[in-house]
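Most newcomers find our protein records easier to grasp once they have seen one. Read left to right, the backbone structure tokens trace the chain's path through space. Once this layout is familiar, the rest of the handout is easier to follow. The record below serves as our worked example for the rest of this section:


***
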Amino acid sequence: MKKAVYFFIFYLFFIFSNAFSITLYEAIKRGIEVSYSLKQQKENVKSSEYQYNSTIDPYLPKANIQSGYTKYLYGGSSQTKVTGVDNDVYSATGTLSLRIFDGGSRYARRKGAMSAVEREKEKMESVKTDIIYNIKTAFFTALGKKMIVEKKREAYETSKKILDLTKAKYDVGVAKKSDVLQAEVRLTSSRIELFESEKEFEKALEDLSSLLLLKPEEIFEVEGNLYVPTVKENLDILTDRALKERPDINYQLKEIERLQMVYNEKKSEWYPKIDVELQQSRLDKSFTPNNRQDTFGIILTYPIFDGVGRHYNLKAAASDLNAAKFKLEEIKRTVKLEIAKAYKDFEKNLENTKLYTELLKEAETNFEQAYGEYKVGKGDILTLLQSEKDLAKAKENLVTSLYQLNNAMAYLEKVAYISGY
């Protein structure tokens, strides 16, 4: 028996020695470090940067070497008479070329690739903003559920105190058996509510633990206080700044820039291409040809007719560009609506917190009066139990309004892109 007790004590010591507390700042920092979605987007940014680096190639000269062997099967070739080479012919050609004009295709491709890089970086900021918001709401909810557990435990202790008082009065004959039963029912209800609140708190911790990618054996507690946040700017200032700084708006602006470059690239197909080329050719019957010929040329290429593809590709690029511009306006409309609704939700939750604070004061006064009257034999048990229940509910409602207010503030910070955490 003693061994079992020692083992249980050791087990509890092991569990709680591995427990740790985490603040909101620490939670956000860890969440950003371990987030799979953020790591994925970082790889997307790297990919776009590599693609941008590859667009330097068309600006660089091209060097090619080509060699071959040819055997003429039926009689001599025309080259035989010119070069004196038999039917077995070896050739080698080296070419150095540089494109000096392409109608802006290279520039458009490179500029578009840079816009794609900046676009992916803006998307990474959006992902980061979402991560911070999710962690904040999970943290505030867990902290609120933790405080509700504390309030439920206080309510349980108060119910127990009322039951003890009622039993003492019953023992001296100044309370009825039904009063004791009523107090016992309230105590049982308080214990049930306490148990339910503990499970709700555990579920909230699971949500936060999942976001932080904590292992099941990592036991932690949320540390901090729920405060009443304030908004310094009015709705118009928040909206104007968000329209300039929100990552999803900047993302779409960069997408418009990229599509503009795609349009320019398609338009460059209507312009001629100019290349300069330096070439050395050798043709002989030996494996290393000796007959050398050096040439320098300027080559002008212009497709007079190559079908209708150029025309329709340009029209398609223009439609894509216009669609992106319309999408930007729709995003702006949505942003304005999100901020307006978030601002009103914050104001509603702020007012609820003020009202629940006043209600708690009234409930405390009511309970103290009912308890005092019952203690001296002037009040009845039902009035006391109802006042105690109202007090417990008022405490819970205030805590709920507080963490909902902090969640509303977190959402407003997200949609209005208020930096800092």
